[in-house]
Amino acid sequence: MTAVAGVQPATSPGPARTAADLQLYVHPAARRRGTGTLLLAAVAAAAREDGWATLRADAPACTPADVFCLRHGFVRERVVHHLLLPLAEVHRAWLAELVCADHPGYRLTTWYAPAIPAPGIPGPARTGEPAPADADDPDGLAAAVPGFAFGPAAGAPEPGSGRLLTVAALHTGTGAVAGYTEVLIPPAPAPRAQHSHLAVVPAHRRRGLGRWVTAEMLRRLHAEHPQISEVEIAAADRDAAVLALGEQLGFRPYRRTHAYRLRLPG
């Protein structure tokens, strides 16, 4: 195969559709011959006819893909930092100490859910983007937490899709979600889990809830998923709290990607 390109919905289809994710690959031996440019033009035209307003693309920093996006009019929206934590370097006793630390007024709860949710059930938020919000849920957490709408008894995951482990801190007075984290556990024997979201409601910040739920997530990976040897976190520049927490827990920077958007002509 010399080259391939396609798009998949990044937002819900229908009249309000806005963005589609672009996937484009050209074999190194076939590059610099205009193949990528022709593929992009064809895909963009098809996406525009199908009603999409923009294309989104992620490119590893300082690579040909990065240069391609800049040369073809994509606008760089953010820099995403990828951090990696080898679980063997995290002492289990230290994690247990973090998890057992007293947090008055809060309790932890965890559940598993399919990585591909059932129709009508919200899925994981895109890394680095805010969760959706509405009048009844100004912080958007109810819509952003996979499985929370239907609780722990979510049923079996789709074959081969992996599972999402969600750890949430609940406010004991109201039962509301004060903060949560989630991690995608791939099917065995894949060794790397992908941390996909971390959020704390503004009214409950500065209480250590982010570190609490993340420590419990790491503890459960240690205890329940021996095939997982490392965890990856991806956070944008603006997610300073997530980056700082990752550094505290021993995550190390290992690569960067750039998120781009191309507006399609009407």
Silhouette? elongated
Pattern of helices and strands: EEHEHEHEHEEEHEHE
Count of DSSP E strands? Answer: 10
- What does the average pLDDT come to? 80
Main β sheet profile:
10 strands, mixed
Number of helices: 6
The fraction of residues assigned to DSSP E strands is 25-35%
Unreliable segments (pLDDT under 50, ≥5 consecutive)? 116-159
Which value, in Å, is the CA radius of gyration?
20 Å
**Structural class estimated from helices and strands:** alpha+beta
Ends distance = 32 Å
Widest sheet: strand ordering? 1-2-3-10-4-9-8-7-6-5
Helix content: 10-25%
How would you describe this structure in keywords?
elongated; alpha+beta; 6 helices; 266 residues; 10 strands; ten-stranded mixed sheet
Describe this structure in words.
The chain is of the alpha+beta class. It is built from 6 helices and 10 strands. It has helices at about 35-50, 65-70, 90-100, 140-145, 210-225, 240-250; strands spanning about 5-10, 20-25, 55-60, 75-85, 105-115, 165-170, 175-185, 190-200, 230-235, 250-265. It has a 10-stranded mixed β-sheet with strand order 1-2-3-10-4-9-8-7-6-5, with helices on one face. Helix 5 links the parallel strand 8 and strand 9. The two termini are about 30 Å apart. Mean pLDDT is about 80; it is low at about 115-160.
Task: Summarize the helices and strands and which ones pair or pack.
Layout (H helix, E strand, L loop, with lengths): L2 E7 L9 E8 L8 H15 L4 E7 L3 H8 L3 E12 L5 H9 L5 E9 L26 H4 L18 E9 L5 E9 L6 E9 L8 H16 L5 E7 L3 H9 L3 E12 L3
Helix pairs in contact: 3-5
